[in-house]
Every structure is written in structure tokens, then in C-alpha cells.
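Milestone M4 deliverable, item 7.
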Amino acid sequence: MAGLLSGGGLRGHGELPLNADINVTSLVDVAFVLLIIFMITAPIMQGGVDVRLPRAEARPLEPKTGLVVTVDQNGRIFLDQSPLSYEDFRATFGAVVRSKHPTGVYLRADRRVNYGAVVEVLAVMRASGVADVGLVAEPETIQR
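Output delivered:
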């Protein structure tokens, strides 16, 4: 009885002492499961607006950081994936540029869209004070 009350390290006769270590195996299992989930869902979350960009032989421009304006095949305008009518785009684009101060402005237009719609969007961008607009294209594949 004296051994139990004195805290000798054993809980009873023939039992092992308490072990206060962290079970690393289950921690690693949970970390790997989370890693796999993030690897699967990350490409899905980069949806964006579906457009077929024109192909160019020159080195294409990829939008990095900044403001991205997209015109899809039906002529709908998207400002950083937010759909806008042409009138709303014309009314708000200047204010968005002044408030965000983007490092660059990029135009993504579907190759099937009417050329006039692209020119109208470019005209609104120029009228808003954007002097340099990057046109985004896909790289040309060389067929031999």
C-alpha cells in the first residue's frame, strides 16, 4: 500500500508506467490526408472564366498580379471574375482602377468574340487612364 501512495511510478501490480508522449503516427497520417485534399482541391478552385485565348507565335503574356478583364465568346465582360454589363463596366472601371492602383491591367478575350467588342472594352480602358494594357494569349504550338 505504501508503494501506491508514494508515487513509485506504477499504477498497480504488473502494470506499465504512464506514457505521456505524443502519438506521431496519427499526426503524420492526418497531415498527409490534409495535403492530399489540398492537392486535389487547389486546381478546382482556380476556375475562372472559360475562354479560348488566341494563339500567338511571340512569347505570350501571362497575367500575374493586377486587374484582369475578360471578354467571353458571348461578349460578356468580367472584371476579376465578376460579370458586368458593358454599361456597368464603362461606369465603374475608372473608379476600380483609381481605388485599387493595379500593377498591371490585362485583357483576356476569347478568340471567337467579335472584334468590335474587344475594341470597345479597350476604349473604355484607355478613357479610364490606363495607358498600358497587356493582351493575354496562349503559346503557339509548332506543328511539323
